[in-house]
Amino acid sequence: MAASYEYEDGGFQQQPDSAGYDPNFVPDSVKSFVVHLYRHIREKNVYEIHQMYESSFQTLSERMFKETPWPSVDAVAHYVDNDHVFCLLYREMWFRHLYARLSPTLKQRIDSWDNYCSLFQVVLHGVVNMQLPNQWLWDMVDEFVYQFQAFCQYRAKMKNKTAEEIALLKQYDQAWNVYGVLNFLQALVEKSTIIQILEREKEGLEEFTATDGYDYSGGSNVLKVLGYFSMIGLLRVHCLLGDYHTGLKCLRPIDITQQGVYTSVIGSHITTIYHYGFANLMLRRYVDAIQEFNKILLYIYKTKQYHQKSPQYEQILKKNEQMYALLAISLSLCPQMKLVEETVNSQLREKYGEKMARMQRYDDEAFALYDELFSYACPKFITPSAPSFEEPLVNYNQDAYRLQLKLFLYEVKQQQLLAGVRTFLKVYSTISLGKLANYMEVDEPTLRTILMTYKHKTHAVDSDGKITSNADVDFYIDEDMIRVVESKPAKKYGDYFLRQIVKLEGIMTDIDRIKLE
């Protein structure tokens, strides 16, 4: 049980604290940790590995390594028979802790890249006979993409780089190369044959989702599950690069309308829907974005209390707030409130109700609000290319973000005239072109152009190549008459009654507590 690895306060020696950190000093509790973890990995005891990885590693990090790295891999290697694969896994955790708690040097960033290369090479070309928890395998892919993003941001801040850093960047120009990152993720997808596994699962010939990706017949889950999570990693990388079509294409084998292995890890679930929703928002597939944001926000609302002790809790709350901002943007550009559950809607109104009302006006203040919400909620876009060392060194870490913001605000401006058209179409079931042109103070040819723009902007091409409508109000032109087709949503009474029942139960409980004299 996990309790066996709770280390007593007197059970470890404190690190020597002379100006810092001795990488070769291994406290007893760390010896015990690596020995037990190594044993459980060899025995394929997934439950115990998960407990040690999620609980003991965090406890020791908090207690002993708050401001220093863990002992070096060379210092612990002889406790685990110098096992090559275990040492790679230990270093992966070592670097992750370093990134989370401290600020890595350029050399450490490069060493972490080398470690990932070695680890993925073993998984791709070696014989890996272990079962690891999904949480750990997800964290590997997630951290791999995060460190790539962090390296691109770091390299793009060239202005204050020292001569030594510039020399290292020139020497290790292949470290965190975008093609290398994409190739590793794609290789994991292909070598794992995960796409074919998911296809066979649909036909009932394979069990992958039902077992959460674990292999109960004595095999290994590592390559399969890494391949699965790499599809989400590819979506994330392509979103960081601004290539939303390719990102969504990489995710297509995973049916996100259903429960899957991606929902077995909260971090993976949130990352998938955040990037899926954001990519759809940028491709004007507002309905898809709204539907998925609504589902995940409702899920977080119902389950976040169960993750309060999780190391990912702060990240869950941050992504939750960002997705509310993206939902506010989506609904301002495509007012489809019928797609949003009552609970999510009330939270949204509380957070952004006033701003959403102002965003409908399409004046300078509205554009400033779109700018503010987009900047708060968008991914940290990257420029993956290396700097030119011959030219004067400048910071270019904001260039990709500014480009995406400019494209987004350009799209918002194009929607400006559509708000007026939508207002009139909501009022009339039929109206002549001349009359509407008169109301809008434009001539008929201009009105036809505006109506064509409305059609274009409220329709999008989905991932199957079909044209779908985002419009809450649609129309067709019959000679010189505009005929309006408004979708009438079926009213949902269930949510309202359930909330009132919960309120009533709360009031009755409060009444029961009152002691009458």
UniProtKB/TrEMBL annotation:
<dbReference type="InterPro" id="IPR019382">
    <property type="entry name" value="eIF3l"/>
</dbReference>
<dbReference type="GO" id="GO:0001732">
    <property type="term" value="P:formation of cytoplasmic translation initiation complex"/>
</dbReference>
<dbReference type="GO" id="GO:0005852">
    <property type="term" value="C:eukaryotic translation initiation factor 3 complex"/>
</dbReference>
<comment type="subunit">
    <text>Component of the eukaryotic translation initiation factor 3 (eIF-3) complex.</text>
</comment>
<keyword id="KW-0648">Protein biosynthesis</keyword>
<protein>
    <recommendedName>
        <fullName>Eukaryotic translation initiation factor 3 subunit L</fullName>
    </recommendedName>
</protein>
<dbReference type="GO" id="GO:0033290">
    <property type="term" value="C:eukaryotic 48S preinitiation complex"/>
</dbReference>
<keyword id="KW-0396">Initiation factor</keyword>
<dbReference type="GO" id="GO:0016282">
    <property type="term" value="C:eukaryotic 43S preinitiation complex"/>
</dbReference>
<dbReference type="InterPro" id="IPR000717">
    <property type="entry name" value="PCI_dom"/>
</dbReference>
<feature type="domain" description="PCI">
    <location>
        <begin position="292"/>
        <end position="491"/>
    </location>
</feature>
<dbReference type="GO" id="GO:0003743">
    <property type="term" value="F:translation initiation factor activity"/>
</dbReference>
<comment type="function">
    <text>Component of the eukaryotic translation initiation factor 3 (eIF-3) complex, which is involved in protein synthesis of a specialized repertoire of mRNAs and, together with other initiation factors, stimulates binding of mRNA and methionyl-tRNAi to the 40S ribosome. The eIF-3 complex specifically targets and initiates translation of a subset of mRNAs involved in cell proliferation.</text>
</comment>
<comment type="similarity">
    <text>Belongs to the eIF-3 subunit L family.</text>
</comment>
<dbReference type="Pfam" id="PF10255">
    <property type="entry name" value="Paf67"/>
</dbReference>
<keyword id="KW-0963">Cytoplasm</keyword>
